[in-house]
Write a structure and sequence with these properties.
- By secondary structure, this protein is of the alpha+beta class.
- Helix content is 19%, strand content 37%.
- The protein has one domain.
- The chain has a 3-stranded mixed sheet with strand order 1-3-4. Strands 2-8-5 form a 3-stranded antiparallel sheet. A two-stranded antiparallel ribbon has the order 6-7.
- The chain is globular, with a radius of gyration of 12 Å.
- The two termini are 24 Å apart.
Amino acid sequence: MATNKKVKIKKLFLGHVSIRDYIVEKAIEKEQGITVEHEGMKMVIPLEQLQHRFQFHQQQFCSKFSEKKYELIDFKWKPNE
């Protein structure tokens, strides 16, 4: 089994973490979960949750550093104890 993809998040939005769609898609492709870190706390999003339960934003965003466009996917912030 592959190790989880690690993602650092600077801000929460209404109690959710927002992850770029291409990061989620790559984790699913590699059969990985995602470990999210925010202000020293961590939360694990297992592969099963990545595949089935998420909410897309209705807006596309542009990267500051390239011409890549992406959507954000929200997950409820539930840090591990």
